Amino acid sequence: MKLLLCSRGSVSERDWLDGLRAALPGHVVAIWRPGLAADFDVALVWDPPQRLFDEQHALKMIFNLGAGVEKLLALRLPAGIPVLRLEDAGMALQMAEYACHAVIGFFREFGVYRCQQARALWRPHAARDRGDFPVGIMGLGALGARVAAAVRQFGFPMTGWSRSRHVLEGVRTYAGPGELDEFLAATRVLVVLLPLTAATRGILDGERLRHLRGGGCLVNLARGGLVVEDDLRDALDTGQLGAAVLDVVATEPLPADHWMWRHPGVTLTPHISAQTLCADAVVQVVHAVEALERGAPLPGQIDRLRGY
Q: Could you confirm whether 166 is annotated as catalytic?
């Protein structure tokens, strides 16, 4: 079987190539370049150009070397070809670490103490009741479920919302558009892990943010396009939100003149909450290739219509 690699992400193509060739010694693995013979079976891609799919007419599977597929699905892909994505590959643990850090940092007011340090101000604040800070996980797939389980260990009331119904231990769950506002009203710290689709783009606008309990925190680990950024600024300026911890923004890299860089309520990181771990990801690719060869169900296959 012939595998074609094209990755313009944080993991170098050489690292991918070395890992894949070591794990799949009986297969051909090549880095894509324009004009290659159109006889490859599998495309392993992250942020590929349209030309790859225009040239490769024998593909049997497309494997996205990351969890988000919105950029890939925006291309003209061959009809009827299964599209797979990474389901975890070490990302869930990293997401859980980040979410716990953000939630606890907001609850314990560590940002306030950092500001006091800059002013040489020694001023303890009264302990807060974690029962007043319910944490809501928006998106309950594999990553969301792992994050919910991690945050729950710290004793916060937990809620969760997703498109379809999920049952998670210790989490009060909501499902579908009809229960979204109720979920938000029960949440003060909102952790966002939704995929970006036509249905979710801009889902967190001013109206939705006003449903959250006042003075809360938005933690976005998913995609910047889920949030209407001007409405987010209004929510921060009015005190509806006390803070926003953002690993993703609508335009990446964030322009130097963007208001988020300087807003006192915003903490930014450069899309690092869950970085792809090459060795873990290669294991998933191997499983997918072996399943394709056997004609078995493909792990991580997405629904193109739903967008995830």
A: no
Average pLDDT over residues 158-183: 97
**Segment 211-236, tens digit of pLDDT:** 999 999 999 999 999 999 999 999 99
Please indicate whether residue 223 is annotated as part of the active site: yes
What pLDDT, on a 0 to 100 scale, did the predictor assign at position 88? 83
- pLDDT exceeds 90 at position 10: no
Q: May I ask the CATH architecture of the domain 91-268?
A: 3-Layer(aba) Sandwich (3.40)
Q: Which of 146, 208, 233, 271 is catalytic?
A: 271
Do 120 and 172 form a contact (C-beta atoms < 8 A)?
no
pLDDT of 9 strictly over 90: no
Per-domain residue ranges for the chain?
Answer: 2-89+276-294, 91-268
pLDDT digits (tens, 9 = 90+) for 13-25: 999 999 999 999 9
CB of 84 closer than 8 Å to CB of 298: yes
Mean pLDDT in the chain? 97
Domains 2-89+276-294 and 91-268 share a fold: yes
Cis bond leading into 253, ω under 30°? yes
The percentage of residues in the chain with a pLDDT greater than 70, rounded to a whole number, is: 100
Q: Which CATH architecture has domain 2-89+276-294?
A: 3-Layer(aba) Sandwich (3.40)
90 pLDDT exceeds 90?
no
* Catalytic annotation, pick one of 85, 188, 223, 233: 223
